[in-house]
Design goal:
Elements lengths: L1 E6 L2 H14 L4 E7 L5 H11 L4 E5 L7 H10 L11 E4 L4 H13 L4 E5 L17 H9 L11 E4 L12 E4 L9 H13 L10 E5 L12 H15 L3 E4 L13 E2 L6 H7 L5 E5 L7 H6 L5 E3 L1 H8 L5 H21 L3 E2 L4 H10 L6
Parallel strand pairs: 1-2, 1-4, 2-3, 4-5, 5-6, 6-7, 8-9, 8-11, 9-10, 11-12, 12-13
Helix pairs in contact: 1-6, 2-6, 7-12, 10-11
Length: 364
């Protein structure tokens, strides 16, 4: 049997290697690396060097071409980048090359199987991998029987399938967490340490780690800097240090002269090499705060500011902002199921102060 996996983020590569090592060890495996992310070239060369047991193929997003070339392929089901056929396809969601690869297979009339593997929180929030966002998508859904929009996902590989309310596929398969006993862990660490030239520190930071999110940039009426400033005021009163973990799309220095978690690493890669047990993950609704548990089963304490921010902004918010706030509450239900006694949901500054005072000092 021939298997093809598609990855276009570092997290996809992590989960692909985990899936390959634990489920496809003795199989014929190709990993397609769609290179639209930072250091993709370095990661590609490292994978080629260290993973001789799998075939790694780089797909250049720059070769997709302008719209007048790329869009017709989605309707004529042509794939100029590969003619190979695989028995099993594994996608973490929607991607242009993935659409071409699927359509090429479906058009051939040969039997093959389509699988999903986890990409962040989407499956836990009931967000389908394929969504209609524009007229091109709508036409594919309505008129192209070979389109991935019409594909049937046969199985999904998830870190916590028990928490999925609306399954995508009939078969849910548990991905093993990245911890001792999982043979994929050291392989993944070796690949990323070499690709990113990582030098882990023995000592970890202590305090609140606030996850920046570009709300204002995305036209959402939540001032993330103002929220952080209010959190920091309370942290200062209690005597805790507060750090900012910048979002990849945010400019450096966005919060002014405050303490930042100094790293250019993708967050999930950072977690592979640096100890975060002394940090309290603090967020409005960033799913990155949940990565330590979903990937590694480490229940790092989480301060979820959802209710506080809801009360701050909801009454004067526009429709889009209210939708974000309502979705945040939905996420909170999932987080509660995950973290239970390690989750703290302050309703205002006074409530946050009391929670910080009463929390175990060893946790921070």
């Amino acid at each position: 049997m021939r298997h093809a996996l598609l990855a276009w983020t570092p997290l996809h590569v992590v989960t692909s290697l985990n899936l390959i090592e634990n489920f496809l060890k003795m199989e014929d495996v190709t990993l397609y690396l769609y290179d639209e992310f930072t250091q993709a070239e370095t990661l590609y060369r490292t994978l080629r060097e260290l993973r001789k047991d799998i075939r790694v193929v780089r797909i250049s997003y720059q070769k997709m071409g302008p719209n007048y070339r790329s869009i017709p392929r989605l309707f004529f089901n042509t794939n100029p980048f590969t003619e190979e056929f695989f028995d099993h396809l594994y996608f973490p969601g929607d991607n242009y090359f993935g659409r071409l690869l699927y359509a090429q297979h479906h058009k051939s009339g040969k039997k093959f199987h389509l699988h999903y593997f986890e990409d962040g929180m989407a499956p836990y929030l009931g967000v389908p991998p394929m969504q209609v966002n524009n007229w091109v998508d709508q036409l594919q859904l309505d008129w192209n029987k070979h389109s991935l929009f019409s594909g049937k996902w046969e199985s999904e590989y998830l870190y916590r399938p028990d928490l999925v309310k609306r399954p995508l596929a009939d078969q849910k398969i548990s991905l093993p967490p990245l911890k001792a006993g999982n043979p994929a862990l050291e392989i993944i660490r070796e690949v990323f340490q070499k690709a990113y030239q990582i030098h882990p520190q023995e000592e970890s930071e202590h305090g609140l780690l606030y996850f920046d999110q570009p709300f204002l940039h995305d036209k959402t009426g939540i001032d993330e800097v103002a929220v952080y400033q209010r959190v920091k005021e309370v942290a200062d009163q209690v005597g805790w240090k507060a750090f900012v973990k910048l979002h990849p799309r945010s400019p450096k220095g966005k919060y002014g002269p405050v303490d930042y978690l100094e790293t250019d690493l993708p967050w999930e890669i950072y977690l592979l090499f640096f100890d975060t047990k002394n940090l309290i993950m603090t967020t409005v609704n960033s799913t990155a705060a949940l990565s330590p548990y979903l990937l590694f089963e480490e229940k790092t304490p989480v301060l979820f500011l959802t209710e506080w921010v809801y009360r701050m902004y909801y009454d004067q918010a526009d429709r889009h902002t209210r939708q974000v706030l309502d979705n945040s509450r939905s996420l909170l239900h999932l987080v509660t199921a995950l973290y239970q006694d390690r989750l703290f949901v302050p309703k205002d500054s006074e409530d946050l102060f009391e929670k910080l005072v009463t929390m175990d000092a060893a946790s921070c």
